[in-house]
């Protein structure tokens, strides 16, 4: 067994915790409590002349099968598992609404600034269309890359309270801006206003179409991955 | 003597945990060790049994919990018995005493059952 990799305690504990976290019936505090239990067991076992690896393995086995513990936890608090299942869906819906309100905010601010900056209508439209493409692209790619690197910053941004705050704040601003635009600007720039509104609805249509296509591709890919092929 | 059955451990878990906590706050690992010690190793609580019971008791308001920093520097969840828990414990005590009386009487009447 000389070629065997050296035992890494931290890594082993992290792996064990990852398996715990993958079960929907464990909350973060449940995982921490069980980790503490594992460490207590290990420190007792190490007094019995067991190596670090041996005490980890014995302690892990003594705590037992994670599936069984998870089902025991679920019996007591089935709502925790339900909430954990629901949260990703809720986050998805909130992300969609947040992006929608943020883009509207962008539209409104551009309309208002276009008057004060006295920009040419076609220039505004080009800027607008470019922003519509660049902003979601930057957002999506930064989410994707931070997810790949496992950075916690964007994870915090996709927290439910943060998303709700973004939606409320941008909706409030949008409300004020909409009032201002209707009262002051619609008379000044009726053509630009209607063009931008039309662009925006067309953009939303394309966005929706892309989302549907993306979901369909992922669904197909997932189905292919889960298929069990039996050789004839 | 054999170890106690799962059913018996399950039925007695609430009064046992509440009794241990009535002596002072404690945490999961320590509670399991105390039970093992008091029972002389005849009763062993698994982690999959103890923590869900503790969480159920917490939900019912019979125990309260606080995260504290242990000597090792790790954060540890300590459980304390609440006033509601103390009341529940006295009810449990009465119930178990009653069962004890019934069984004692039965076995006294028919000693050959033992």
From TrEMBL, chain A:
Transmembrane region(s): 93-114, 126-145, 157-181, 201-219
Keywords: Membrane, Transmembrane, Transmembrane helix
Source organism, top-level taxon: Bacteria
Protein name: Uncharacterized protein
Lineage: Bacteria, Pseudomonadati, Bacteroidota, Flavobacteriia, Flavobacteriales
TrEMBL record, chain B:
Database matches in Pfam families: PadR (PF03551)
Transcription regulator PadR N-terminal domain residues: 17-90
Record protein name field: PadR family transcriptional regulator
């Amino acid at each position: 067994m000389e070629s065997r990799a050296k035992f890494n305690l931290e890594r082993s504990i992290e792996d064990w915790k990852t398996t715990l976290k993958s079960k929907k019936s464990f909350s973060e505090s449940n995982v921490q409590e069980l980790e503490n239990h594992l460490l207590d067991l290990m420190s007792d076992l190490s007094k019995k002349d067991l190596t670090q690896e041996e005490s980890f393995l014995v302690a892990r086995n003594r705590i037992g099968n994670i599936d069984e513990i998870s089902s025991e936890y679920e019996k007591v608090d089935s709502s925790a598992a339900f909430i954990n299942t629901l949260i990703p869906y809720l986050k998805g819906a909130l992300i969609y609404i947040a992006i929608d309100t943020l883009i509207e905010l962008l539209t409104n601010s551009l309309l208002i600034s276009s008057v004060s900056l006295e920009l040419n209508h076609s220039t505004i439209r080009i800027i607008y269309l470019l922003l519509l493409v660049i902003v979601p692209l930057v957002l999506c790619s930064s989410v994707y890359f931070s997810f790949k690197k496992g950075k916690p910053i964007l994870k915090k941004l996709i927290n439910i309270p943060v998303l709700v705050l973004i939606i409320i704040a941008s909706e409030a601003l949008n409300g004020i801006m909409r009032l201002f635009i209707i009262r002051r600007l619609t008379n000044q720039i009726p053509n630009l206003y209607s063009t931008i509104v039309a662009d925006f609805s067309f953009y939303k249509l394309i966005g929706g179409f892309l989302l549907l296509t993306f979901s369909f591709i992922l669904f197909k890919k997932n189905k292919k991955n889960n298929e069990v092929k039996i050789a004839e | 003597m054999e170890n106690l059955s799962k059913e018996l451990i399950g039925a007695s878990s609430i009064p046992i945990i509440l009794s241990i906590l009535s002596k002072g706050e404690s945490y999961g690992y320590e509670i399991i060790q105390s039970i093992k010690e008091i029972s002389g190793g005849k009763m062993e609580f698994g982690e999959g049994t103890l923590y869900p019971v503790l969480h159920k008791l917490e939900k019912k308001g019979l125990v309260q919990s606080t995260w504290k920093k242990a000597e090792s520097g790790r954060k540890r969840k300590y459980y304390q018995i609440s006033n509601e828990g103390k009341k529940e414990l006295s009810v449990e005590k009465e119930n178990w005493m009653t069962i004890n009386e019934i069984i004692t009487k039965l076995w006294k009447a028919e000693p050959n059952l033992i």
